[in-house]
Amino acid sequence: MEDGEVVWVEERERDRGLNGEDGEDLYSMGKWHFCPKNAQMSDKVFLFQTFICFCIIRLFRETEKESEMVQAKVKETYYISHGSPTLSIDDSLPARGFLKSFRDTVYGGAQRPPPNSILVISGHWETDYPTVNAVSGTCDTIYDFYGFPQEMYKLKYPAPGAPQLATRVKELLTASGFQRVSVDKKRGLDHGAWVPLMLMFPEADIPVCQLSIQTNRDGTYHYNLGKVLAPLKEEGILIIGSGSATHNLRALRQSRDGSVASWALEFDTWLKDALLNGRYEDVNHYEERAPHSKVAHPWPDHFYPLHVAIGAAGENAKAELIHHSWDLGALSYASYKFTTE
Fold first, then answer.
1. String of b and e for 27-53 (b: at least 16 CB within 10 Å)?
2. Which residues pair with 33 in a beta bridge?
3. The pTM is what?
4. Measuring CA to CA, how many Å separate 153 from each of 6, 99, 201, 314?
5. Which of 291, 286, 319 lies closest to 303 in space, CA to CA?
6. Which helix (H) or strand (E) holds 65?
7. Contact of 334 with 97, CB cutoff 8 Å
8. Burial 143-179 (b: 16+ CB within 10 A, else e)
9. Mapping DSSP to helix (H, G, I), strand (E, B) and coil, where does residue 244 land?
């Protein structure tokens, strides 16, 4: 048998590798390779060259990791109107089709690397103080809705938890003056998180963390909370506020002609104009400045995630309407993207 050295070679692409005398690619697939010595090469020279090859491989690997981290930076945040829980199964809803195409038509498709983790601020998690869920392992799917078709209670979104992101969120909030930030190590994903995510990122392979809202505070508070979270985008974290542009459940009704309640239309139009023209202070004080604010949002739980998304986008963020549709005569699925160049 020919003299040589058995070495571990990291997985690399063949066209980027170094070829031995036998033509085998030393970068091909992570396997043990037999590297024959040149008959005229001394043991010391052979071992030295093997060591150099190993160092080069490690250098390329570390450089690639750094490049991936740079590519993973996220410039935008989103506010997604998740509407009714039936969004999870009802193909007649235009918003469902929009969210299923989100990865390709809005987020950049296969050419853009996925986010490192996702932080969701959902209208379905209210606490007195900011709270993050730090799940080790797979997140439970919470069915926080009642009286819907049984098939909805069989749906699963087994995304991994993001305890490191939870720790980072707590660090940022605490350093910025939030005196009390809690951590919940058991809570899974409510339907404000898993319903849109199962359509947007159906593989369920991106770690997810949720942050609660405080309905005993106001829009400005949540906007400022979002500003604290803005550095997460540089770390490859996708921040999504999940609520509804209008959310008055008692006013919902079937409409044969597709008509929309006038109060809902006026509020939704005001919101669009305010966001697209950068009047974020008006949105922060929507209760006083928007038409029919108390009818559109009798309770602010589904609106405060919008304020967090705006704040987290950063200074001088530009809003873009990425989807708009109606259901049940008063439920707006208006969704927005906020980008800072």
1. bbeeeebebbbeeeeeeeebeeebeeb
2. 7
3. 0.80
4. 54, 20, 19, 38
5. 286
6. helix 43-71
7. no
8. eebeeeeeebeeeebebbbbbebbebbbebbeeeeee
9. coil
What tokens does 34 get?
């037999």
126 burial level (CB within 10 Å; 0-12, 13-18, 19+): middle
Distances (CA, A) of 140 to 15, 154, 268: 43, 12, 34
List per-residue pLDDT tens for the chain, 341 residues long.
445 544 444 444 333 333 344 444 333 344 444 445 454 556 665 566 666 655 655 654 554 444 444 447 999 999 999 999 999 999 999 999 999 999 999 999 989 999 999 999 999 999 999 999 999 999 999 999 999 999 999 999 999 999 999 999 999 999 999 999 999 999 999 999 999 999 999 999 999 999 999 999 999 999 999 999 999 999 999 999 999 999 999 999 887 788 999 999 999 999 999 999 999 999 999 999 999 999 999 999 999 999 999 999 998 999 999 999 999 999 999 999 999 97
